[in-house]
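RETRY 2/3 - previous attempt timed out on the joint model. Re-submitting the same 876-residue input unchanged.
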Amino acid sequence: MNTATLPINESAPVRSDQIDILMPQANDQASIPAIQIKNLNFNYDKELTLKDINLDIPDKKITAIIGPSGSGKSTLLRTLNRIFDLHAKQKASGEVLLGNENILASTCNVNKLRTRIGMVFQKPTTFPMSIFRNIAFALKIHQKISRAALTKQVINALKQVALWDEVKDKLHQPADALSGGQQQRLCIARTLAIQPEIILLDEPTSSLDPISSQKIEKLLLQLSQRYTLVIVTHNLSQAQRIADHVIFMQQGEIIEHGTTEQLFKQPQRKETLDYVRYHDA
Amino acid sequence: MTNLRSFKNILFISACVLSLIIALCFMISIFTTLITKGGGAINWQLFFASTPSPGGQGGLANAIVGSLVITTLAILLATPIAILTAVYLVEYGQKRRLARIVQFANDLLLSVPSIIVGLFIFAIVISRVGHYSAYSGALALAIIALPIITRNTEDMLQLVPVQLREAGIALGVPRWRITLMILSRAARPGIITGILLAIARVMGETAPLLFTALSNQFWSLNLNQPMANLPMVIFQYALSPYQSWQQLAWAGALIITCFILITSFISHYFLQARKHS
Amino acid sequence: MSTSPSLLINTANKRYQTDKFAYCAKICAISLIGILCAILFALFIHSNEALRVLGAQFFTSNVWDPPGEQFGVLAAVYGTLVTAAIAMVIAGFFSITIAFYINAIAPAWLYKPLRITFDMMAGIPSIIFGMWGLFVFAPIMANTIQPMLQNTLGALPLFNILFAGAPLGIGILTASIILALMLIPFMTSMLTDVFSAIPMAIKEAAFATGATLWEVFHAIILPYSRSAIAGSMMLGLGRAMGETMAVTFVIGNAHKISSSLFAPGTTISSTIANEFADAAGTLYPSALMALGLVLFVITMATIFLARWILKSYTKERL
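RETRY 2/3 succeeded.
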């Protein structure tokens, strides 16, 4: 787990307004956040479920979003790849900047957006196809590709999630014959094959057994070297294990955010303290 | 328990059992009649010779083929519209008001008397074109088939979890491509069931053809002309005074019933098998 | 794939492609409503002449005289309503009791076979029922049942009118019975679904009080599913009124209103079925179209009401 270093002298107490602006990076390069969220409000059928969110998601780190159920964690995650478009009565306003482009704009090409920001869901959602086709399906849609190149990319994706050895001789069998943990890894492989910059994960291990969860956590740590990961989790120990930065939400608002160390050891807000302590006890 | 309570209970249970037995007896009677009166005419000639002139000998070949042709055409016309309507209702319309109105309209369409559908097609097609035709019959049957296929497709699409759609869309795949994938894989059993049930329904309908496709004594595959079909032939021959014609009517009735029962059974079995897998 | 520079391309093309599919789907969906409206409209246009010429008399007279160009729908409407009503009473009784049997009385292993049996019987086309009715049942009516009814109940005050006349075997009563027979399978299926939908908890609580099957049935199940049963009955009624082939064979095709159930009569659908093909001129076909319009309005109103009631019973449709 990366430990963050504060840019100012360490003897001064950490002020909450300092934490708001930029997430400091372990490597000393100028850190441009992967995503910048400005004044984000979200409406679920006239009800305001996200209230004035302002946030930066750091590049190539694992950011965890934690909070009680109903706090808006998943809603926030789902605005980042506009997946809420699918549902009739859900609307977002404000700005979510990828680079310097607002993905909430109506002129945004959402299909292209989703090739840069991928998503893994809580329950493994394999397509009713073979393992090979699960990964190849979207690849073939996004680019004209020869069969050989396609196969190479599929194998590559499966290797990245350490699934290749387990499925290499049953590539053309239905994907739902795999175990839950394997299916989830397949879903991650599917997302990786598209080569996004950012991967969103909505409670990816909550429907899996402990051993599969462990494998996936290990995988995520590896992936964070190349990808930016944003993961919603209700499992605080998981957040402590793998996250670099943590965002704590409650009732549609961001209560506090900071490095994992800061948030869990020295939370600035009472709500955070209550939540963290309650779950650790 | 008092005697009165017990008595009422036994009376009620007896009534239920009796109802069932009576209903089953009637059904058995119908089947036996079909088999005894129609079975005798089952021979090769039935399937290869065309319908005869009054009192003559012949078969039902042109009627059988005609029914198949008209039914196939009707299903081909109805299925695309039905599938797209179901797609609208589940994927795009969801809970919007228009979607609910369309759903209700579908229910209404399911119950329109079939003779009215025939009158409708007569009014807008035959009266303009000036002559009866097989394709107008197919149009009428398509209207009857449409809500059946829509309903079954819709039911099947509802069963597909929304996460599957989200997973596809999260990969940047366009919406319509996901819908196509779901239709051709996840929802396929429902579509097939709907088509089979529609076929079973439409094959037996007489009233819509009374003023559209009529019937044809001779062998004809011309869609622009009246075409022979089993229900109309049965209707005509059963009410005729000719023995040979009546015999053919029963044979036709037996054929239709067997076909419909087999189709219904397959669709029920198909759906059950798929639902459990 | 993620190297493309901009997301904010003028997405006009892409959006059109996605929307084109949604657009087609929407058009198809709307066409369903369109068809219903078109039917109403077309029938109306084609009835215009008859309604104009014959006026209100069309609805109040029972004179049906094609050569003399006098058309009154009363006989046909009477026949439709009476046969449907009697059929519903019979079918209603049978299907409720059979549905309850399948649901609560039959041993568990019988449930599936019985359901399949009735589901498949519901698919048998009406012309089969009509033929069977004419060639098998009508003689039985004429030779056995009708005389029996006349000899037994016929002595009682009301029934001597209802069962008057020669036992022809065909007529209003026979047609009603055949219609009932046709309706029983499909109504049994619907009502079995209704009874199955009652939460198990309620049934168990009822039986836990030591009540008999009859008591559970009439004190708990019937009131609980009252609106669903009503809705199903109305659906059946709508279907009965629109039936053609089952009725045409055995109704006798006489444009008369008689007080006897043994007498021949006619229904709207059998009138149209029998006479449309040979209707000459313009007034005659128009009158038949108007008849169709009447049937359409009556059945659609009934079905509309039925679906409305059913919708409020369950959130989903039966």
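Chain B has a mean pLDDT of 88. Closing ticket.
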